[in-house]
Amino acid sequence: MSPPEGDTTTLAEGSTVKCDVGCHIGGHIVQAAATCQVGAKPAALIGGIGADAAACAACCYEVFLRLARPGKPTAAVAPALAAVAAAYGCVLVEGVLSHQVKRFLIDGDKVVLSVPGPDAQEPSGQEFAAGEAWCLDVLVSKAPAGSSEAAAGKTRVLDERETQVFKRDAAVERGLKSPTARKVLAEIERRFPLTPFSLRSLASVTPGEARLALTEMLKHNLVRPYPVLREACRSAVVAQCKGTVILNTNGTDRLTATPRMPTEVKLSAELVEASGEGGPRAKLDDNLKALLAESVSAKKRRNKKK
Questions:
Q1: d(C-alpha 84, C-alpha 142), whole Å
Q2: What is the torsion angle, in degrees rounded to the nearest 10, for the CA atoms of residue 217, residue 221, residue 222 and residue 228?
Q3: Residue 154's pLDDT is what?
Q4: What pTM does this model have?
Q5: Rounded Cα distance, 185 and 67, in Å
Q6: For 254, phi and psi rounded to 5 degrees?
Q7: Does domain 160-226 fall into CATH 1.10.10.10?
Q8: For labeling, which of 21, 184, 203, 245 is most exposed (least CB within 10 Å)?
Q9: DSSP class per residue in 88-130
Q10: Domain ranges of the chain
């Protein structure tokens, strides 16, 4: 959700909020996302299922980081993330892709699926490679205890009019009838040729004219929408953790700050195994504990003294 100009929506105390941002310098793109709660201390969480989900997403991200190594299969990621989600009483959200990114390319052909299925599979034998940049993205969902609905990790679009973010599809070329649509398309190709943009960022026309112009472009697949997705389970809370990294032969460089769970976070009592640096963590199996104990950062080479 990217609020339109004049939006008066107020976030309630204790609401769980996902903050998702991205930027580029000279076409080199980075993205990051974190989950927090309104009214909490900076970078802290009050508690409840929102805290459980956010802690789960952060732990999944750390596991993902350690599996994204040159020569390792991308197919090993999904089972590990599912095991972490289960430990926190959460489910992974379906349809979430982590992309390899390149200069001026936010969604490369090489992807990792958090939840592979019959209609969505990764290429067989796909591996991570040294020198690649990746945007790692994890979303998890959790429903309240005793809820009549179980968090299914399935999403739905309630209202297409809520969509405020779009991206030009450079592979599609087609003429437009409306002069206003042509004017807006010219602005998009000048200012946002390869990256997402919000409706309110279009300055050449009024918001109403921009919406009509984008409707015409959508009919011809000139732009791709980023719809507002909601959990099929209305009582569930969804948390996200996303960051951009570069894979090296001797470790991984984090290009964006990774959200870390503060010690103030209050997980559900039945989940907590121990607290310490990075906050409380749910009960994980020995394989995941060993994986999380591994170092991530690239080791700096020391110059030998002559």
A1: 13
A2: 80
A3: 83
A4: 0.85
A5: 41
A6: -85, 120
A7: yes
A8: 203
A9: TT-EEPTT-EEEEEBTTBSS-S-EEESS-BTTB-PPTT-B--T
A10: 16-157+233-292, 160-226
Tell me the average confidence (pLDDT) per consecutive run of 10 residues in the chain, 306 residues long: 83 85 91 84 66 88 93 94 91 92 90 81 86 95 75 79 90 90 94 91 91 94 91 86 93 82 58 52 81 79 58
Strand partners, 153: none
User: What pLDDT does residue 275 have?
Assistant: 47
How far is Cα 113 from Cα 74, in angstroms, rounded to an integer? Answer: 9
- What is the DSSP annotation of 272-292? EEE--TT--EE---HHHHHHH
DSSP state of 252: E
Give which of 44, 51, 52 is closest to 89, Cα–Cα.
52
- CA 45 to chain CA centroid, Å, is 19
Assigned token pair, 212: 């009509």
Q: Which CATH architecture has domain 16-157+233-292?
A: Alpha-Beta Complex (3.90)
- pLDDT at res. 5: 80
Of 208, 285, 216, 267, the closest CA to residue 47 belongs to: 267
Residues paired with 32 in a beta bridge? 21
Tokens 């179980």 sit on residue:
150
Nearest C-alpha neighbor of 265 from the set 65, 17, 49, 82: 49
Tell me the C-alpha distance between 75 and 55, whole Å: 23
Q: How many CA atoms lie within 13 A of 129 on its CB side?
A: 8
Q: Which two tokens stand for residue 73?
A: 């299969």
